Amino acid sequence: MLNIAPNKVSEELAKLFPNASCELNYKNVYELSVAVILSAQTTDKSVNKVTPKLFEKYPDIFTLSIANKKDVEDIIQSIGLYKRKSEYIIDFASYVMEKYKGTIPNSIDELIKIPGVGRKTANVIISEGYKLPGFAVDVHVSRVSNRLGLVNSNDPNKIEIELKTMFPKEEWHIMHHRLIFMGRYLCKAQKPECFRCPFINKCLYDKKC
């Protein structure tokens, strides 16, 4: 039995974060995809600082596919794991050019075949980029959904499956963002602001975190 009804979670998060949205800056699916790959274990704010120069030099997937790795490293060196991520985004672009003629696919099954793309990134691309049903699970979504008793797992794939059964498809996109905002700005990993949480009497924080 769930600790809090999913519809109640949806209702309260809508009040807390009515305008929750993607905080990565991008203009198209190409820029979104690269930004999401770069955002792993790095804040969106940090990624937004390097992508303007990156996209100025590599404005499309073709130019990135033939980029010099050292040049890319120089541009994104302020973010975590920049050497590995430089390789990831170039390999990503090269693969899409070779296998999909430069068009980033819009299905999770195809996206996860691409170097540097896991299920979280794939869900973001189809949901945010293509406006198709997707429910990306990152550390914030995982933490909040466990604390609220919606799930009891640290496996992102299992959490994704469970959350998709709880909320209507048309809510997956916004629920993803609202759970992220909840984890990023209120239900933080360290020093969560429980005093302003509408779920305080139902939260499992003391038991699970």
Helix-strand category: mainly alpha
Which fold name corresponds to the CATH topology of the largest domain? Endonuclease III, domain 1
C-alpha Rg, in Å? 18 Å
Task: Identify the overall geometry.
Answer: elongated
Number of individual domains: 2
Element-by-element helix/strand order:
HHHHHHHHHHHH
Total helical segments: 12
* The top level CATH class name of the largest domain: Mainly Alpha
Number of strands: 0
In CATH, what is the homologous superfamily of the largest domain?
Hypothetical protein, domain 2
Q: How much strand? A: under 5%
What average pLDDT do the residues reach? 95
Largest sheet, in brief, is:
none
- CATH architectural type of the largest domain: Orthogonal Bundle
Helical coverage, percent range: 55-70%
What low-confidence regions span 5 or more consecutive residues with pLDDT below 50?
A: none
Question: How far is it from the N-terminal to the C-terminal residue, by CA?
Answer: 20 Å
